[in-house]
Amino acid sequence: MDPATAGGLDTLTFLAVLAAALMHAGWNAIVKVGLDRFSSMLLIALVSMGLALALIPVFPLPAAAAWPWVVGSGLLHTGYKLFLVRAYTHGDLSQVYPIARGTAPLIVAVVGVFALGEEIGPVAATGIALIGLGVVSMSLRRGGIEANRTAILWALGTAGFTASYTLADTVGARLSGTASGFVMWMFVVDGIAMSAFAVLARGRAAFGKLRPAWRSGLVAGVLSLGSYWVAVWAFTRAPVGLVAALRETSVLWAMLIGVLLLGERGGPWRWGAAAMIASGLVLVRA
What's the rounded Cα separation, in Å, for the pair 180 and 164? Predict the structure, then answer.
């Protein structure tokens, strides 16, 4: 049985994906650098592309069968960023982000089982559901969703892109024979696509306004590339549904960073959602 499709999740992969989730939460915290959200996303995409171009010579080229997935995935990542920016224009981060991220693992797990032939046992499936529901619950207050309907629709569209690029990266990385080579070229495609959209939407001035935030952007870009690099590597070692669910624990890390380091209030509802995510982690690893 291929370990990537079998039902288990070894300790190394489990801990690596949790670390990747922490890095993901870290770059989302750092990205609040005074730029508008589109400029922040553009800056991270450019830094990640630059890092990927520097690392590409170190790794072998992906197999020929993987190149359509490289290009498709890069474009899906760009679509994710653009949809997320649109969602943020109608709702705040604390409401939009959990909806956008929490529903994606549920989609990925179902497609992974039925389309990719992966095996996920009932205990792990329950864990995935708890993580997804816990992440979505982070956006609730007193049992209701505060974000407006337009923001929710954009957030759900973002979730669709997240699920799509996760599945594309899984198939592509497994075909490529080199998860590292695959992810580096994917970041290059994403950076080119984001740059092209920036020129069309805002002209060359879109790049000039990034200079004041380059230091924060560099750190965020390193964390962004590192986080997803680990995730793609994990896609080749474990069922994608398990990995996708573990990645979304970044929302839990983000809450802890906010409460413990930034002085934000947790509140009983958010702590309850955090407990749900933690319970899901236990079941996924069981």
Answer: 20
The length of the chain in residues reads: 286
Confidence of residue 92 (pLDDT cuts 50, 70, 90): low
pLDDT score for 146: 53
Could you tell me if 76 and 161 are in contact, meaning their C-beta atoms sit under 8 angstroms apart?
Answer: yes
Q: What is the signed CA dihedral for 94, 99, 100, 102, rounded to 10 degrees?
A: 110
Of 131 and 45, which is predicted with more confidence?
45
For residue 1, the model assigns a pLDDT of: 46
Burial 92-117 (b: 16+ CB within 10 A, else e): ebbbbbbbbbbbbbbbbbebbbeebe
Contacts of 153 (CB under 8 A, 6+ apart): none
Q: Where are the domains of the chain?
A: 11-285
SS3 125: helix
By CB atoms closer than 10 A (0-12, 13-18, 19+), residue 10 is exposed
CB-based contacts of 208: which residues, under 8 Å, 6+ apart?
none
Q: How far apart are CA 229 and CA 42, in angstroms?
A: 19
DSSP annotation string for 163-184: HHHHHHHHHHHHHHS-HHHHHH
The dihedral over CA atoms of 206, 209, 213, 217, expressed in degrees to the nearest 10, equals 10
Is 0.90 surpassed by the pTM of this model?
no
Closest to 24 measured CA to CA, from 280, 250, 266: 250
Strands (E), 57-151: 140-141, 144-145
